[in-house]
Amino acid sequence: MTLNRRAFAVLFPIVLLGHILAGGAAYLGYRHALITQNMARLQQNLSQLQSAYAEYASLDSQLLYVVRNSSAFLTFIDESDAEYRTRVLAIGVQDSLQSLVPNDGTSVSCSVFQSDGRQIFYFDNGSDPFQILGTGQSAFAHAVLNDEVALRSGLVTEGDDTTYLVMAAKVQARTGGVGLVGPQPDQSLVMQVAVRPGRFEKIRRTMAHEYGAPVELSGTPQISYRELSAGTELAPGLYAHETPSVAYLRGPLTRFAAVTGLFVIGLSLVSVWVLMMLVRRYVIAPVEELDRQVTAITENRRNDIDVPDMGEVGRLAANVRMLHGQLTRSLRQIRQLYETDSVTGIGNRIYFNDKLDQFFHISVTTGRPLTMLFIDLDNFKQVNDVHGHRTGDALLGAVANALTATVCDATEGGAGAMGVVARLSGDEFSALILADPRGDVVTTLIDAFLLKFRGGFRVDAVTYPVTASIGVAAVPDDADTPAHLLSCADHAMYHAKAAGRNTVAFHADLPRDGTAVVTLERSVMPEERGRAMRPPLPQVSGPAA
């Protein structure tokens, strides 16, 4: 999993969870505010309902009081002639009522019942001349006759769903006063006034439509366990209570939840995108750049690491750079030890084989001739046995230095000539020169090197009876592979020894008599074979020539 995916997998759940919690808190806050707002509105509506009820109750009370105390009504109840009372005196009562009824279209009726329950008077300000007292109002009046309460009011709903606010009172037949009937109940009347509370009913219907539930009227206060519920007292013993339906709040809450959910998802994506951009710029990008540089180094496409000035990533890059430098130096040292002859300080056979492949490739691709000198020291074993290994090692080192100096001098003057030297084994050395074997560079090199052995080889003011036999082979004249080139040069070297030593033999000048060419294994001493078979280390640099 890449760093980008890891960062997204870490950031997105955290950001989403945080925004979900924030959205949940916003939802709860909105729900509380919505309930509080609607509770205030509900209480306001109930207050309006209570006010409307009180207004109509006050009208009922005023009508009842004024009519009961009017002279027309007192004359009406004192008249014993029922026919005269109904035809003549009732008109005066009607006029008294008509003068008190407001002109806003309020429906008002008045009725009078005798103690035996018989209706002796009814008036309605409606337009229907045949209007009669409703059964609900009649039952209410009869209930007052049979009750010990002198005055009662309440809401009565008729069969046509018309509601009236009714107020009834027991009236003494002789005085018109309101009070409980004495020992002569036949002398009492019941006077009842009914008002149709239009505004009160309109508020009830509006509330029922708005809240999805009717306004309940009861004789006792109701208890609701819902958060949105309220009630009010309309009159003593009459309470109004409203509990909106569940769907009333579900709509706005659902819409708010949907909007909040979309907002949370959108905000989470935007927040994660912004965070990913910041994390990528300040964390992931520097790490990826460091990874690219390290990868380029491992693939040999880069040599060093850039160190950014960025906190932990910069310190990490500096540490990786320091580690790479230490590793590079260690590998260079190991390779130098691996490819350097410990006695002479020049390249060993492993180094020589590597350079032989390189020079052979250059020769093949560019067409330039490649010349190999295979050098063997004559009489070295005698010097080593007589004077000891320390002297022998010193002699080998001096020969290596002389050969290196001679190759350097010869190749410096040659146009484009390149050369390396190495100790192959024991007293055998070799030199590779990218030059013609018969050209001035190779000829000058051979002459200068053999000149150093005339009369013996001098080391620290001591001359040793050592000479050099040199075999020369070239590509493409003598060989077509590196191994074949080495074999040809080795073969030519043995011909030089046979020719009297301290001389040179060119493989191209040897007789073609079918003589077997000495194999590569022949020129490797037993103690060198194990080292020659070891695989080469990764190339860092070659030893100094």
Automatic annotation (TrEMBL):
Residues 368-509 form the GGDEF domain. It comes from the Bacteria. GO terms for biological process: signal transduction. It holds the Pfam family GGDEF. GO terms for cellular component: membrane. The chain crosses the membrane at residues 256-279. The keyword Coiled coil applies. Residues 281-332 form the HAMP domain. The keyword ATP-binding does not apply. Residues 525-545 are annotated as: Disordered. InterPro entries: DGC-Regulatory_Protein, GGDEF_dom, HAMP_dom, Nucleotide_cyclase, Rev_trsase/Diguanyl_cyclase. Keywords: Coiled coil, Membrane, Transmembrane, Transmembrane helix. This is GGDEF domain-containing protein.
